[in-house]
């Protein structure tokens, strides 16, 4: 658009006048000659005068054609006073430089932000920033415009826009715009410019928000009308003090109302303060008066003896503000508090305390009373003090105090931030930290317990080999093994909660899993609960462990059954949730992607709101003692999260509860289904030959594994840790298979195997551990290794050893 205007201007000032220039000059010369002949009566003098005019015009035309740029400069000398006036009327600072890099024009605001009027780009002492601005200037000369964002200048952050300008585009225009950072001050701006600001104006209250530098950021209509003469005036960025005047008696007036104006009462409300825990800050130490403020101006009628009427206006204003504000007298009695203050301290609607000390714990009451007395007398100042509220004694809070004068009984303004949302976030972070710690503890306990169960189950298997059914000890041994397997199931739940259990993920369809578990659910639910199953269309495949998903459905179904003691309906649904639907849900936790959802809902009693946030915590249960471990839903949560999914609980008292699980659609499903899977080779023979090196730091596990492998025909060499294992490997004996624990003292299993493969690259390796295989494979980072989870039986160890030996490369 700029280039079009330029072309149009050149056409109007150059081409159109050139067509009429010669006839007009000839006509002017003839008329001049006639006038001279008429006046002098000499034809020669008249002809000479006309010829002189034509010669001067010819010389000027010749100069314009020979030196067009210099002629243009003669015609158009920039009027920088107009540019500066336009710049000063805006909220940005501007500067203009020429091709020689000289500063030819700058606004007053530029001089305030950059004292001494430095020439861009040399506005900062930071070498890197100056180079960035210089690069941007070169880019503007080349491309026409450039931009640098977020430069720091004191407390300001500025965006710099550089553009080539001028009739010949031989100047650079530098525009410095303050970065607008959304914060709590935006609420005050909306309040002043909205209906609340208009209502304050109708009540006779002029309100202005200023920054720490004293410039106006926002104002209500009443102030604009009286200070600038128009309710739509733009005075943003102007100095507030320029609109005010003080007479010889110290009274405050509006500068525009030079005579006949009423004196004004000024109330300052700090909007941002520098908090110093454990004490307060005075106005001379970086307190609230150095930051943004809300200024309230009220007419003070002549002869007014007090601030009672003004105080009523202030109370009306404070009740509208979104900040927690209260006023106290010199004795510390609370005169007024707004709704936000009541919410912040946890007061009921009709409750009003007598003193600020009634709101804090006993230990802080004396400090609060002393602070109120400090600010009620002496010079006006503001500051903060750290307190602990009575309703939240564990959460320190900053109470801001400011001394006020001229408002009758009111002497101190109290400000308290409503931090209920912040406290909620803190509790959520603390809860997440606690859950993470419990998960790590559960995983560690399960790992150690798996070692014990491995020894118990292994010894039971060895004893059962010496007994036959019908022996007096056979049933007892079988019972011990059965209880050990139950204990192993409990450790799997702990590992599931801590997201450390071993998963065997497959690409599957959720309706198939629901169909497989439906018969089991009908037996678990009983006669009084009706099972309803429905499936949606176009469901995407998911990748998960089918056995673990069945466990999830069973756990949710059992909980739903217990929530319907008199019977009801259990509904299981599967449906597709495309990415567009997820975006419409505006769910902060759930990323936008394609999901397949599983909903399990019941018509039971529902879950109270105070319990709903705790249902996924481990060992939390509402069932009677001995009827629940509290691990059911925490196990569900762990399995879903380890499978890459999300679970949400919804409930309403008396209307049942719903659990919705979102599993991401597996994008590689088609590719994986297209590859035919090889049928596993079934082997029943577990006897073997060869030498096995067994590395295990737990004596009981090592003893059981050694006996089990020896009974299968292997020669077994043992070591207590990785260092001893390397010594055995270096002994010169042929090792056919290395079986090792993963986590061991001194040197762990993966470190040992990494060093062993330098000398034995084809050595088969079988790792055994109580931790999850997926977690270990990420940390092991070794190829061609097998894995055996603990606890395991003698037969499982023999099968794993046989399969690991089968991976050994054969000589061609």
Automatic annotation (TrEMBL):
The chain crosses the membrane at residues 20-39, 45-63. InterPro entries: CheY-like_superfamily, HATPase_C_sf, HATPase_dom, His_kinase_dom, HisK_dim/P_dom, HisK_dim/P_sf, PAS, PAS-like_dom_sf. SUPFAM superfamilies: ATPase domain of HSP90 chaperone/DNA topoisomerase II/histidine kinase, CheY-like, Homodimeric domain of signal transducing histidine kinase, PYP-like sensor domain (PAS domain). It catalyses: ATP + protein L-histidine = ADP + protein N-phospho-L-histidine. Keywords: Membrane, Phosphoprotein, Transmembrane, Transmembrane helix. Residues 310-379 form the PAS domain. The modification 4-aspartylphosphate is found at residue 741. Residues 691-805 form the Response regulatory domain. Its EC number is 2.7.13.3. Residues 444-667 form the Histidine kinase domain. It is an enzyme of class 2 (transferase). PROSITE patterns: HIS_KIN, PAS, RESPONSE_REGULATORY. SMART domains: HATPase_c (SM00387), HisKA (SM00388), PAS (SM00091), REC (SM00448). This is histidine kinase. It comes from Sphingobium agri.
């Amino acid at each position: 658009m700029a280039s079009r205007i330029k072309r149009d201007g050149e056409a109007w000032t150059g081409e159109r006048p050139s067509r009429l220039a010669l006839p007009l000059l000839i006509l002017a010369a003839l008329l001049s000659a006639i006038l001279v002949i008429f006046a002098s009566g000499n034809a020669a003098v008249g002809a000479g005068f006309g010829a002189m005019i034509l010669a001067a015009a010819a010389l000027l035309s010749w100069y314009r054609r020979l030196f067009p740029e210099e002629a243009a400069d003669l015609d158009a000398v920039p009027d920088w006073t107009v540019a500066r006036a336009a710049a000063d009327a805006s909220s940005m600072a501007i500067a203009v430089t020429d091709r020689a890099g000289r500063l030819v024009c700058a606004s007053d605001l530029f001089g305030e932000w950059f004292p001494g009027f430095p020439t861009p780009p040399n506005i900062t002492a930071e070498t890197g920033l100056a180079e960035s601005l210089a690069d941007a200037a070169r880019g503007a000369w080349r491309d026409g415009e450039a931009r640098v964002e977020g430069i720091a200048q004191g407390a300001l952050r500025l965006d710099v826009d550089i553009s080539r300008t001028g009739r010949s585009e031989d100047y650079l225009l530098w525009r410095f715009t303050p970065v607008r950072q959304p914060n709590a001050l935006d609420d005050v701006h909306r309040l002043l410019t909205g209906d609340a600001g208009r209502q304050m104006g109708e009540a006779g209250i002029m309100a202005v928000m200023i920054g720490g530098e004293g410039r106006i950021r926002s104002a209500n209509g009443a102030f604009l009308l009286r200070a600038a003469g128009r309710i739509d005036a733009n005075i943003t960025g102007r100095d507030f003090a320029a609109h005010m005047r003080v007479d010889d008696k110290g009274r405050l007036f509006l500068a525009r109302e030079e005579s006949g104006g009423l004196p004004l009462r000024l109330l300052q409300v700090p909007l941002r303060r520098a908090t110093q825990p454990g004490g307060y800050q005075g106005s001379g130490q970086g307190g609230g008066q150095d930051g943004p403020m809300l200024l309230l101006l009220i007419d003070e009628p002549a002869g007014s003896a007090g601030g009672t009427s003004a105080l009523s206006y202030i109370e009306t204003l404070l009740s509208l503000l979104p900040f927690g504000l209260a006023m106290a007298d010199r004795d510390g009695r609370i005169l007024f508090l707004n709704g936000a203050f009541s919410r912040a301290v946890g007061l009921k609607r009709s409750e009003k305390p007598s003193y600020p000390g009634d709101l804090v714990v006993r230990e802080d009451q004396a400090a609060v009373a002393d602070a109120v007395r400090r600010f009620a007398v002496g010079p006006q100042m503001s500051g903060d003090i750290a307190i602990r509220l009575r309703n939240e004694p564990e959460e320190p809070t900053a109470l801001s105090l400011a001394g006020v004068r001229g408002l009758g009984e009111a002497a101190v303004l109290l400000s308290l931030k409503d931090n209920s949302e912040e406290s909620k976030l803190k509790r959520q972070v603390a809860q997440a930290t606690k859950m993470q710690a419990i998960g790590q503890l559960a995983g560690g306990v399960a790992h150690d317990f798996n070692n014990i169960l491995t020894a118990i189950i292994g010894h039971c298997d060895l004893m059962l080999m010496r007994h036959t059914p019908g022996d007096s000890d056979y049933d007892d041994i079988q019972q011990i093994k059965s209880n050990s397997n139950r204990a192993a199931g409990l450790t799997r739940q702990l590992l599931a909660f801590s997201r450390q259990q071993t998963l065997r993920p497959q690409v599957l369809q959720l309706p198939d899993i629901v169909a497989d578990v439906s018969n089991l659910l009908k037996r678990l639910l009983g006669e009084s609960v009706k099972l309803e199953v429905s499936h949606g269309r176009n469901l995407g495949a998911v990748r998960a462990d089918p056995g673990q998903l069945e466990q999830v459905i069973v756990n949710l179904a059992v909980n739903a059954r217990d929530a319907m003691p008199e019977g009801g309906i259990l509904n299981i649904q599967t449906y597709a949730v495309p990415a567009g639907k997820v975006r419409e849900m505006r769910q902060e936790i759930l990323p936008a992607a394609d999901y397949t959802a599983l909903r399990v809902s019941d018509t039971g009693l529902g879950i109270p709101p105070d319990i709903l946030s705790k249902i996924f915590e481990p060992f939390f249960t509402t069932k009677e003692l001995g009827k629940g471990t509290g691990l059911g839903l925490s196990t569900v949560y762990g399995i879903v999260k380890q499978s890459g999914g999300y679970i949400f609980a919804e409930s309403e008292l008396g209307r049942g509860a719903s659990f919705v699980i979102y599993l991401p659609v597996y994008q590689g499903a088609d590719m994986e289904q297209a590859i035919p899977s090889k049928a596993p080779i079934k082997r029943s023979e577990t006897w073997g030959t060869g030498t096995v090196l067994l590395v295990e730091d737990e004596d009981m596990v090592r003893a059981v594994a050694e006996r089990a492998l020896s009974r299968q025909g292997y020669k077994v060499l043992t070591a207590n840790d990785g260092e001893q294992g390397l010594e055995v490997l270096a002994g010169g004996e042929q090792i056919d298979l290395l079986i090792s624990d993963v986590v061991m003292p001194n040197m762990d299993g993966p470190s040992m195997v990494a060093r062993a493969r330098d000398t034995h690259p084809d050595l088969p390796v079988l790792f055994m551990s109580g931790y999850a295989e997926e977690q270990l494979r990420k940390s092991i980072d070794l190829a061609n290794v097998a894995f055996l989870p603990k606890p395991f039986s003698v037969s499982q160890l023999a099968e794993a050893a046989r399969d690991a030996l089968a991976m050994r490369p054969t000589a061609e």
